[in-house]
Amino acid sequence: MAEPILVVDDQRELRLLIRLSLLSLGRVETAGTVAEALALVANDRPRLIVLDVSLGVESGLELCRSLKSDPATSGIRILLLSAYGQDADVAAGLAAGADRYMLKPFSPKDLVGAAAELIA
Questions:
Q1: Which domain holds residue 91?
Q2: Angle of the 87-95 helix axis to the 60-69 helix axis, nearest 10
Q3: Mean pLDDT of the chain
Q4: What crossing angle do the helices spanning 12-22 and 108-119 adopt, rounded to 10°?
Q5: Is residue 92 one of the residues assigned to a domain?
Q6: Are 67 and 76 in contact (CB under 8 A)?
Q7: 4-aspartylphosphate (modified residue): where (predicted)?
Protein backbone atom coordinates (compact mmCIF):
# COMPACT_ATOMS: atom_id res chain seq x y z
CA MET A 1 0.00 0.00 0.00
CA ALA A 2 1.28 3.46 -0.86
CA GLU A 3 2.61 5.73 1.85
CA PRO A 4 -0.17 7.87 3.29
CA ILE A 5 -0.49 11.60 3.67
CA LEU A 6 -0.76 12.54 7.34
CA VAL A 7 -2.85 15.53 8.43
CA VAL A 8 -1.99 16.87 11.91
CA ASP A 9 -4.32 19.52 13.30
CA ASP A 10 -5.95 19.92 16.72
CA GLN A 11 -9.25 21.11 15.20
CA ARG A 12 -11.36 18.08 14.24
CA GLU A 13 -13.41 19.93 11.61
CA LEU A 14 -10.32 21.27 9.88
CA ARG A 15 -8.70 17.80 9.91
CA LEU A 16 -11.80 16.47 8.16
CA LEU A 17 -11.82 19.26 5.56
CA ILE A 18 -8.13 18.78 4.79
CA ARG A 19 -8.51 14.98 4.68
CA LEU A 20 -11.43 15.18 2.25
CA SER A 21 -9.56 17.70 0.10
CA LEU A 22 -6.49 15.48 -0.17
CA LEU A 23 -8.22 12.13 -0.82
CA SER A 24 -7.70 12.61 -4.56
CA LEU A 25 -3.95 12.21 -3.89
CA GLY A 26 -4.26 8.88 -2.08
CA ARG A 27 -4.74 7.50 1.41
CA VAL A 28 -4.98 10.17 4.12
CA GLU A 29 -4.53 9.56 7.86
CA THR A 30 -5.22 12.13 10.58
CA ALA A 31 -3.89 13.00 14.03
CA GLY A 32 -4.97 15.63 16.54
CA THR A 33 -1.87 15.67 18.74
CA VAL A 34 1.89 15.36 18.46
CA ALA A 35 1.75 11.97 20.24
CA GLU A 36 -0.82 10.63 17.76
CA ALA A 37 1.25 11.95 14.87
CA LEU A 38 4.45 10.33 16.15
CA ALA A 39 2.66 6.99 16.63
CA LEU A 40 1.33 7.10 13.08
CA VAL A 41 4.73 8.09 11.66
CA ALA A 42 6.39 5.20 13.51
CA ASN A 43 3.73 2.74 12.33
CA ASP A 44 3.20 3.82 8.72
CA ARG A 45 5.70 6.40 7.50
CA PRO A 46 3.87 9.06 5.47
CA ARG A 47 5.15 10.62 2.27
CA LEU A 48 3.75 14.01 3.28
CA ILE A 49 2.65 15.62 6.54
CA VAL A 50 0.25 18.55 6.45
CA LEU A 51 1.02 20.06 9.83
CA ASP A 52 -0.63 22.88 11.76
CA VAL A 53 1.89 25.18 13.44
CA SER A 54 -0.27 25.60 16.57
CA LEU A 55 -1.52 22.35 18.05
CA GLY A 56 -3.13 23.67 21.21
CA VAL A 57 -0.35 23.68 23.81
CA GLU A 58 1.93 21.68 21.50
CA SER A 59 4.08 23.08 18.73
CA GLY A 60 3.92 21.93 15.14
CA LEU A 61 7.24 23.71 14.60
CA GLU A 62 8.89 21.50 17.22
CA LEU A 63 7.41 18.38 15.64
CA CYS A 64 8.65 19.53 12.23
CA ARG A 65 12.14 20.23 13.60
CA SER A 66 12.23 16.84 15.37
CA LEU A 67 11.15 14.89 12.27
CA LYS A 68 13.55 16.72 9.97
CA SER A 69 16.51 16.22 12.34
CA ASP A 70 15.98 12.43 12.57
CA PRO A 71 17.62 10.56 9.67
CA ALA A 72 14.77 8.00 9.73
CA THR A 73 12.12 10.66 9.05
CA SER A 74 14.06 13.54 7.49
CA GLY A 75 12.86 12.63 3.99
CA ILE A 76 9.19 13.11 4.84
CA ARG A 77 7.88 16.21 3.08
CA ILE A 78 6.20 18.70 5.45
CA LEU A 79 3.68 21.37 4.53
CA LEU A 80 3.06 23.73 7.45
CA LEU A 81 -0.31 25.44 7.82
CA SER A 82 -0.58 28.56 9.94
CA ALA A 83 -2.69 31.61 10.62
CA TYR A 84 0.58 33.43 11.34
CA GLY A 85 1.80 35.09 8.17
CA GLN A 86 4.47 37.57 9.20
CA ASP A 87 7.84 37.19 7.48
CA ALA A 88 9.35 36.02 10.79
CA ASP A 89 6.69 33.30 11.13
CA VAL A 90 7.32 31.98 7.63
CA ALA A 91 11.09 32.12 8.20
CA ALA A 92 10.71 30.18 11.47
CA GLY A 93 8.67 27.50 9.71
CA LEU A 94 11.18 27.09 6.92
CA ALA A 95 14.06 27.13 9.44
CA ALA A 96 12.34 24.27 11.29
CA GLY A 97 12.66 22.27 8.07
CA ALA A 98 9.26 22.71 6.43
CA ASP A 99 9.22 22.17 2.68
CA ARG A 100 6.34 24.63 2.26
CA TYR A 101 4.47 27.16 4.42
CA MET A 102 0.84 27.93 3.65
CA LEU A 103 -1.39 30.49 5.32
CA LYS A 104 -4.85 29.87 6.75
CA PRO A 105 -7.42 30.37 5.50
CA PHE A 106 -6.51 28.50 2.33
CA SER A 107 -8.50 27.26 -0.60
CA PRO A 108 -8.79 23.46 -0.81
CA LYS A 109 -7.68 23.71 -4.46
CA ASP A 110 -4.48 25.54 -3.48
CA LEU A 111 -3.83 23.00 -0.70
CA VAL A 112 -4.21 20.06 -3.08
CA GLY A 113 -1.92 21.78 -5.59
CA ALA A 114 0.78 22.41 -2.99
CA ALA A 115 0.53 18.87 -1.65
CA ALA A 116 0.69 17.38 -5.15
CA GLU A 117 3.83 19.39 -5.91
CA LEU A 118 5.51 18.16 -2.74
CA ILE A 119 4.82 14.48 -3.40
CA ALA A 120 5.50 14.54 -7.15
A1: 21-47+65-106
A2: 30
A3: 96
A4: 60
A5: yes
A6: yes
A7: 52
Rounded to whole angstroms, the Cα distance separating 61 from 25 reads 24
Sign of CA dihedral 70, 80, 95, 100: positive
- Per the structure, the count of domains in the chain is 1
- 3-class SS at 77? strand
**pLDDT tens digit string along 7-29?**
999 999 999 999 999 999 999 99
pTM reported for the whole predicted model: 0.96
Q: Determine, yes or no, domain membership for 69.
A: yes
> What is the 8-class DSSP label of residue 15?
H
DSSP class of residue 71? T
Q: How far is CA 111 from CA 8, 36, 81, 104, 105, in A?
A: 14, 22, 10, 10, 10
- The CATH number given to whatever domain includes residue 32 is 3.40.50.2300
User: Is residue 81 in some structural domain?
Assistant: yes
For residue 118, being part of any structural domain is answered with: no
C-beta separation of 29 from 2 below 8 A: no
Instruction: Please tell me the predicted confidence (pLDDT) of residue 1.
Output: 65
